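Notes from the pairing session

We agreed to fold both candidates in a single pass and log them together. This is the raw record for the first candidate, unedited. Please don't reformat it; downstream parsing expects exactly this layout.

Candidate A
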Amino acid sequence: MPTPLSLPAVALVKATVPALEAHGLTITHRMYERLFKNVEMRDLFNQSHHGEAGSQPKALAQAVLAYARNIDKLSALSGAVERIIQRHVALNILPEHYPYVGEALLGAIQEVLGEAATPEICAAWGEAYWFLAELLIGREAAIYRDLATRPGGWNGWREFVVESVLTESETIRSFVLVPADGRAVLRHEPGQYLGLQLDPPGHGVLKRNYSISCAPNDRAYRITVKREGHAGRPAGVVSNWLHDQAHPGTLLKVAPPAGEFFLDRKDDGPVVLVSGGVGLTPMISMLETIADATPGRPTWYVHSALHGRVHAMRDHAQTLVAGNEALQLHTFYSEPSEHDRRGRHYDTHGRITADWLVGHTPHEHATYYLCGPKPFLAALVNGLLRLGVPTERVRFEFFGPADELIEQQRHAA
């Protein structure tokens, strides 16, 4: 355990809250500019989340502000801290990386705040940074030990082979990955993701996280990837490379499963799985697991897509629930095509709303698992909380950094 923060440091960090409210985003932009001068550190991060329009600097600014506001009651941040830890594990963040981040952050605070960043303020933030860093390092070390010692487990990057590729829709493909060494894989928790490290020509080392879209097993993982943007656009480099270049036999470097968003298999109460677009990937993992291991557990799977051409794994989901009264499937199409048939391809024309969920699922007892784009989640997460579903029964995952959605949920709760 790290040395407890001193009372003077706590007071000084809390005193910087107004400055962080005014200048936090500038500080985090400058921090990343400093940090990325080191190529090794730059390659640890998903660059599509950075830059002037990137979401990561905003997410970090809000995290730093939340830390300052709650530094005397850090238990309020336990969920956010665990999310950070799980992301670090997927990226193989190690203790030797932390000094670089600390130096960049403190340097950015001094640069942006100028004379207001007194030696006392800087010393307090240095103490606060290393207190949190030691917490993260300790928890991450425990996770790394656990991952390495469990059946099929490993640390760092392990070579996997693409065994097969399946076209799921016009924009989505699935890739089944098996270990190159032929040994077993670690059984993931349904809802977790894998970290991938690739080196596409002309782009340097890139890292991405992709949810596992199959039930836990000892042999393989399946990831289901949407082609983002267009070929050549930074935001779509990895997904486009996978769609265009990955084929049976392609080697990929893969980190162990990570993530704090997963199905609670110890609870046998009703669950409602809710997804939008490619957010279906962790939900299919959960639905496969329920259908196989606890088929009597009352389950509702509610999915939203634009239309049938982009609706991935539709037939697979229908097969999983077929003939089982405990498993219910309901699909929304917001823009059904002339070829989409209500009652066969989809059930409702429109978008999922929190009011619909509360009216059609057992909201008094169910736990809701949600995954999809940020606007989709912001509306549904906050809507469910507004309609009285307890915070502990609304669990969600999204792709990219946590920023305004976390703030919205915190205030709604």
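Candidate B (folded immediately after A)
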Amino acid sequence: MVRLIRQSWAEVEPHAEDVSRFFYSMLFSIAPATRELFPVNMEVQRSRLLRALVHVVQMVDRPDELTPFLQQLGRDHRKFGVVSEHYEAVGTALLAAIKRYAGEGWTDSVERAWAEAYTLMATTMNNAAAADDGPAWYNGEVVHHERLSWDLAVVRVQPEYPVPYQAGQYVSVEVPQRPRLWRYLSPANPPSEDGTMEFHVRSVPGGWVSRAIVGHAQPGDQWRMGAPMGRLAVDRHSERDVVMVAGGTGIAPLRAIVEELTQYGDNPNVHLFYGGRTRDDLHELRNLQQAAMSNPWLKVVPVLEDDPSAQGAEQGTLADAVTRRGAWQDHDVLVSGSPEMIRATVSRMLVAGTPLERIHYDPFTLD
């Protein structure tokens, strides 16, 4: 099954955008009621589907990692109003879309492999959603909005009830300026006593939600937040030290983990590479350096791609900076940032000799 799925996906992936468009057209045709579950603008949703599909294909032979991801996805989809009946229509549309672009590679065996894989995926997601007795989303109020630059803002949200997330996880949010257009954000702080969540949001090209948050969010806005997702974490009881690689606002989940670790006296050594184009992109650098001064287990390495005059920083990409230090074979590696940065860094680390099972990242990072 794994071989057939990967071979057929290799044929389909060059047409991924067309696959996504065909999938949603087919879904809305056979199950018109599902159209109301999605925003008017479908561009973001289509790219999100592709990232989920690619992640599933990559993990299809690693059930210990794929199953928790699908369970989280099933719980998260409750916020859309997804019910059991929708999974059959989604499966029909998905197989039809892949078949259309697989060409001659679509055989009876390939169809059975995809059908079997989707059945397992849908069952896992549906069972997780049914077993979750928590709310489909959490209501919260914006209590602070600070614009650090023209494209970056820090937002603090006070949930009506504490969201049960862990440091390093992310949640989907819906803001009043963009109804039904959910965006994934990582809290930059570990769970606090009053439940307040801090988000660092950068406006990205084509980012409908991020631009609305940076430019128009204000105290009093009511947000909705979905179920926590993600598996970035540090095992304090492991004998392995840790490498963290963060690009831009990808620092948020790693900052939350570091802040949580500072509560303990005994931690693994953490080597944090924090990168951006220029020094201005490293908005959390001073705070992290201050944390490193009082926590000897933490070392912070700033990395700049396009700021050669800056002092005290390594030059080049994060992939350059990390791999020039070696392969980090005996470390756990956490990577957070844009999809492009994650792909480049993970690829270079694998070539350098970092074991795949040591590298951890989450698939959802942008609008």
